Amino acid sequence: MLTALALLLAVAVVTPHTTPFLLLLVTRILILAILAMSLDLLLGFTGIASLGHAAFLGLGAYLTAILAVRYEFGLSWDFGLVILFGSLLGAATAAVFGLFALRASGVYFLMITLALSQCVWGLAYRWDALTGGDNGLNLPGRPVLGPIQLGNDAAYFYVVFAFFAVSLLALYVLVESPFGKSLVGIREHEVRMRILGYNTWLHKYIAFIISGAFGGLAGVLWAQVSGQVSPDNVTLTTSVDALLMVVLGGPGTLLGGVLGAGIVLFLREYLSTLVPWWQYVLGGMYVLTIFYLPDGVLGTLRQRRKAAGAPAVGLAPRPVRSEELRINEGGIE
């Protein structure tokens, strides 16, 4: 964990002194890392895979653009309130989606979240008067956050890094709490958790809402860094990218999503300048990861270090096996 924190601190110190391209790339990586970590809360810790996170990111992004473009009043430039409203919108949408999606499990849950996300895409594509339709919305510029001029790329990087750090800390505290241990117990053996008296549906529902809130936060930050919001932000590709980031980095590690976002965006931006068939390289890497690193990069390193008796890598609790579960006053241990 200390190594990971040292690397993140080095990123915060070094990145603003690099090229504008790299500064923008790292900023995008940190934003998508928030989205990947929010999905990891479901996939890695609760054991449910979702293809609906593009909806949360898209709604946060569209809220930001609509307030800035369609309604020219003070609220549109109050970045703190937009962050709050974007997170609340993501949480509210997840609360509605969860009522339908959590009635199912496995591939059926996956397909329901995909269908609900496509409904959001349909609204973004068809509601021209509000969303701009296929053309999307162009933001006039970044607002201010107190004395901070977010129009400066270095200043905006530090703001994004601050939100990323807070998100990472909040999710780490969450997964280390009794509630987080309960989610791990559900992932390992949901039937036994029910026998122990836990309302597993409610636990998954709350986790889904929290995940949606962080997805909405990522959407607000993404809209400001890209300067343009369109239905492309709500497509299936966005949800698949987030899922692959988690799988590539390592489900159940939090930092795996950060690593996955870095690998995917770096290869996409770098390989696309070298070869026209960069998608095949990226797809091949995904396939090799599934075959040879089923636990992801950090997950595999953690398992090997664990087998060697060394401390685990990544911000994640020790996996709880079903035979270890028992009730105590603090929850699961």
Your description of this structure?
There is one protein chain. With 333 residues, this protein is mainly alpha-helical. The protein has one domain (27-326): Orthogonal Bundle (ABC transporter involved in vitamin B12 uptake, BtuC), CATH 1.10.3470. 69% of the residues lie in helices and 4% in strands. It has helices at residues 2-14, 20-43, 53-69, 79-101, 106-126, 128-131, 153-176, 178-195, 200-226, 236-249, 255-271, 278-292, 296-307, and strands at residues 137-138, 144-145, 148-149, 228-229, 327-328, 331-332. The strands form three sheets. Strands 1-4 form a two-stranded antiparallel sheet. Strand 2 (144-145) and strand 3 (148-149) form a beta hairpin. Helix 4 (79-101) runs antiparallel to helix 9 (200-226) and helix 7 crosses helix 8. The chain is globular. The two termini are 21 Å apart. The relative contact order is 0.18. Residues 316-333 have low confidence and may be disordered.
Percent in strands: under 5%
> How many helix segments?
13
End-to-end separation in angstroms reads 21 Å
Unreliable spans are 316-333
Largest sheet: 2 strands, antiparallel
Shape: globular
CATH class division: Mainly Alpha
What is the subunit organization of this protein? Answer: single chain
Which fold name corresponds to the CATH topology? ABC transporter involved in vitamin B12 uptake, BtuC
Radius of gyration based on Cα positions? 20 Å
Q: Which class do the helix and strand fractions yield?
A: mainly alpha
Question: What count of structural domains?
Answer: 1
* H and E order: HHHHHHEEEHHHEHHHHEE
Strand arrangement across the biggest beta sheet: 1-4
Share of helix, binned: 55-70%
